[in-house]
Write a structure and sequence with these properties.
With 262 residues, the chain is of the alpha/beta class. It has 11 helices and 10 strands. It has a single domain, classed as Rossmann fold. The longest helix is centred in the last third of the chain and has 17 residues, at 183-199. The termini are far apart. The structure holds adenosine-5'-triphosphate and magnesium ion (MG).
Length: 262
């Protein structure tokens, strides 16, 4: 399982994990993504924030091949993926989680993770073995035989990450994995995100409204508003940006975090 040989990006000597060039996505007269460009370097952990309806999930859908673009180009690990289907993009090593997680009710936790592993192998035995390893690594072994639908939301969120890891991704897009969690559960999921990034070497982009999480873990933050990228930079710089404060964070955030932002 996993990758054999060098990545095309490595062969070409390119460092970027993802290049998004002028991506625009229209839905019947609504411009959900408006000429968005950015680059993710290999091993970065980048946050994507912005108000409800700003176009964050749409951008993930465009990148992961679920939505055809209206215009623009996307390059993943040196390969053009602009016109690829979602399963083709996934095979190249781009995994994602979904904002609204619909658990496969009939599957156990382990079977769910195996679904991810089948992206890399046809062997049931190998998929089972790999799923077991991932569950151990994410400290989910105790939950292996539960139906995902029986679990509390916080555990379901961890399972969705485990399933995404099953495909052995180079890039993981996380859509609000901390939504609806209490502070200790947020700490747990934050530790998993950091483990996946720091120890497993996966490049991560995460959409998050939980600012404690996104501002703490991100190397860089990109901000969308009304489909446009309005800011990009280090978390503390972005949090002081008047445009970002006005569009999303609010003055209260700045007052409450004055010390960190100095
Ligand atoms: N499949 C679709 N068809 C039509 N309009 C859509 C579709 N998906 C998203 N939209 C619209 O595109 C805009 C951006 O939505 P999107 O879900 O990307 O926002 P978001 O930034 O993820 O918001 P949230 O923080 O609430 O999840 C919204 O106006 C939404 O209604
Ligand atoms: Mg969304």
């Amino acid at each position: 399982m996993g990758y054999s040989g060098k990545d095309k990006a490595e062969e070409k000597g390119l460092m970027a994990m993802l290049e998004v060039h002028n991506v625009t996505k229209d839905f019947d007269g609504l411009r959900a993504n408006d000429d968005i460009s950015f680059t993710l370097e290999k091993d970065e952990l980048v946050g994507l924030i912005g108000p409800n309806g700003a176009g964050k999930t749409t951008l993930f859908n465009c990148i992961s091949g679920l939505h055809p673009l209206t215009s623009g180009r996307i390059i993943f690990a040196g390969e053009e993926i602009t016109h690829l289907k979602a399963y083709e993009v996934a095979r190249l090593g781009l995994a994602r989680t979904f904002q609204v997680y619909v658990a496969s009710g009939d599957l156990t936790v382990k079977e769910n993770v195996m679904v991810g592993c089948f992206m890399r192998t046809r062997s049931r035995a190998l998929a089972k073995e790999r799923a077991g390893e991932i569950l151990t690594d994410l400290k989910l072994t105790d939950l292996s035989n539960y139906l995902v639908s029986e679990l509390p939301v916080s555990a379901q969120k961890r399972v969705t990450m485990a399933t995404a890891l099953g495909s052995d991704p180079k890039l993981l897009l996380l859509d609000e994995v901390a939504a609806g969690l209490n502070p200790s559960e947020i700490d747990e999921i934050m530790a998993i995100i950091k483990h996946v990034h720091d120890d497993l070497g996966v490049t991560v982009m995460l959409i998050e409204h939980v600012m404690e999480l996104v501002m703490k873990v991100s190397d860089r933050v990109i901000v969308l508003d009304y489909g446009q990228k309005i800011a990009e930079g280090e978390p503390t710089t972005v949090a002081r940006d008047p445009l970002v404060i006005k569009a999303y964070l609010g003055e209260r955030y700045v007052t409450e975090h004055a010390e960190e932002l100095e």
